[in-house]
Design goal:
This protein is mostly helical and 254 residues long. 80% of the residues lie in helices and 0% in strands.
Length: 254
């Protein structure tokens, strides 16, 4: 679990870094312009780390499934070699799909001085602004949505359906609480990531609702990666104790 958590933290930092520096620069300079090459670079790394996030969350769901439903075989199923191979496969698939998306974008022609109603280069918005045929891009987009989005989400859903079924068979209340607390952090992160990601995806299909698109994209690209470390840290008893003491101090000061 900690092997995957360390990699998830690294990917969240990279994912966060693909949008925030440019956003802060835009605010500082009051200039929202971005070059064509800069937009392509941004889309590549944004897609790469977003897909890596999806794969890692799916792998961590399987890890929790094995730990709770097959605890005696956990070290056999989730051995270091398999964990390394799963991570390597996630990187390979994400790199290849990100590269394919950028190559398909390169074949499109655009008019000058285009405006994207988001603070980052979102691929759906870029495709909508193209002046040439985008059939291949649309096919790739839906294929990637199935492979990189729906299949991992189905795997997470199946894993948690088995986990819940296994937990309900536990007789002691203490055992149930311990099992649920083991999955609570991961389930919260999955809900945040997929909920805000779906909001961005749906809002990007139309360019009329600028405010909704902006709010959803901020949640997806900034708030969610920032919350992940706090969500997982709350499992630590020492951090919980410090937070309770801080809340008590604030309450007394008021």
């Amino acid at each position: 679990m900690y092997f995957f958590l360390s990699n998830l933290s690294f990917i969240n930092v990279c994912f966060f870094s693909t949008t925030v520096p440019k956003m802060l620069l835009n605010i500082h300079t009051h200039n929202k312009a971005i070059t064509y090459q800069g937009c392509l670079t941004h889309m590549y790394f944004f897609t790469l780390f977003a897909e890596l996030d999806v794969f890692l969350l799916s792998i961590m769901a399987y890890d929790r499934f094995v730990a709770i439903c097959h605890p005696l075989h956990y070290t056999v199923f989730m051995n270091p070699r398999l964990c390394g191979l799963l991570l390597l496969l996630s990187w390979i698939l994400s790199v290849l799909d990100s590269l394919l998306r950028n190559l398909l974008i390169l074949r499109l022609s655009f008019c000058t001085n285009l405006e994207i109603p988001l603070f980052f280069c979102e691929i759906n918005q870029v495709i909508q602004l193209a002046c040439s045929h985008t059939l291949l891009n649309i096919i790739e987009k839906y294929f990637a949505t199935v492979v990189m989005g729906i299949i991992p989400l189905a795997g997470i859903t199946f894993s948690y359906s088995q986990i819940v079924s296994s937990i309900l068979r536990i007789t002691s209340a203490r055992g149930k609480y311990k099992a649920f607390s083991t999955c609570g952090s991961h389930l919260s992160v999955v809900s945040l990531f997929y909920g805000t990601g779906l909001a961005v995806y749906l809002s990007s299909t139309t360019i009329q609702n600028f405010r909704a698109s902006a709010i959803a994209s901020v949640m997806y690209t900034i708030v969610t990666p920032m919350l992940n470390p706090f969500i997982y840290s709350l499992r630590n008893k020492d951090i919980k104790r410090v937070l309770k003491s801080l809340v008590g101090i604030v309450t007394l000061n008021e």
